[in-house]
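Quick one: structure for this chain?
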Amino acid sequence: MLDAMRYRGPDGKYLYSSSFYQGGMIRLAINDLSGGTQPFFSEDKKIVAFYNGEIYNSGEIKKRLSSTHHFVSDCDGEVISHLYEEVGEEVFSYLDGMYAIAIWDITKEMLFLARDIAGEKPLYYSINPDGRITYSSEVKSLIASRLIDTTLNYQAIWDFPTFLWIPEPETIYKSVKALQPGQYISYQNGNFKVKQIKNRFEINISGLDEVDLLEHTRCLVTKSIEDRLLADVPIGCFLSAGLDSSIVSTVASAKRSGLYTFSIGFDDIDDPYHGKADESEDARKYALKLGTIHKTIHVKASDFKRILEDFCHYGDQPFAVSSGLGIYTIARVARENGIKVLLSGDGADECFGGYSWYYWLNHQCKMSKPSTIGDISFQNNGIPIQQRVALLNAYSSVQRARSWHYYASESEKRRLFHPDFIHESSDRYFSLYKLSEQWSAEDFVKHDRYFYFPNEMLRKVDRMTMASSVEGRAPFAAASILGLSNQLNYNHFVKDGLLKWLLRKAFAPILPDEIVLRAKHGFNVPVDNWLKNEWNDLVQDAFSPDSFLRKSGLIHSKSGYLATAMLNDQERLNGHTIFSYIMLNMWLSKNR
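Got it. Here's what it folds into:
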């Protein structure tokens, strides 16, 4: 199991075995490079803890426990076993960081599994018919145990083209579940309970005026970035010269000399969402101002095409978020330069309201309600934005949530998938959302924060950095920042025509105006352009009679014709939808 994901931890391999419990981990050494041997024990050896991640407040916890507990290393994870002795299963609520944790309590014969509040670190598990529980950081590791039923989850396959990933807690296999962000499991004698981790790092802001809130926000974000510089190895940052990555790089470079920054450069291609896809020159100029050691990686369609099979492998499950190709490429170059930690700006959009459609959440553009619910979404760039918003406002909350942010609609999937597969896959899409028709603009943003953010952004950062044995860290995923975001209102997100208004104003004193006022530009790959040109053979292969999609009975003989028509649709961007079928076909070819 450990060897199946050795890239996640090439610096050490540790095992523990008893009559009731077997555990192990592979280590990527970041802190206390010569120490940090796992598992971490309590003094009486009755508590056994394995963990992956970083505990940023470990120093504070050690001070609190130093008079009653003996620490044998400088590794941050050693606090887990000793803190458990003091507070029991409440231990997870005191840990500020990213983590997947397993604690075996020998006396109680009880296992605890926990995942951090934001969901930065993955944790999967399967309960076998005989009552045994098997867990790991990756699904492929569970499969390597040969203890897992590998029956495919057809509902997950049905959902995949809508999201470009499989929504948790589901996975590609029926027998495997994901522990969701901010949850922990207790397992004893076959008794299985899932519980929520309390966020003890949320500070009430109800009494703050605007000036104090700006100061509080700046201090909170700054502290989160500085905390994530905890490392005994070289550190780097993703830098696009957008607001989020610039905040992270600016704060980090002020505290850490010799900081590396990295950006991706594309050919001069129009990105249909934001204009030109290449931001590398802006990033280079800002890195020069900061004084970082900057690396620009120039890529073409052929470069990313060559790494698609690696992208598929390290994605673990079917995964089609094309911007992950850039993360993977940067992480690989970072590791070649000796970097083992990369900080990203992911999460600022979900926590502070940065996505372009958030501007329209409170706009009531009027037109007659459509007679039927069609396929209108934010991907319909051929329809004027005012008309698009009016159509979306006529939808239910569930339909709007899908249409603002995601890709293949239910009707599009019905046309592309084989009719027999559609019959097997009951339409349970809407059950993924716990929505009401009274949803506010804040509710839509919060939904993205707790659904889209961990499933797409944090999954992408973790898988594509760890693929190169690099640890990705997202300061905006801090429990304290999530707690702050939950208390903000729409005017903090969008005000005076600016997205992320609060964050922009909070950091205006330390950033150049061109950064503060710069429009949102995602870390986008021009996938629509490439699939119609340099990558078109991938489309033909995925929908051919010999493809695994076709052989598995998932698509029909006319699906390829429909896919080509969708790519050439002048009113709707369908590149990501078609790319999802390409990646699903590739995953099936490697795993079935």
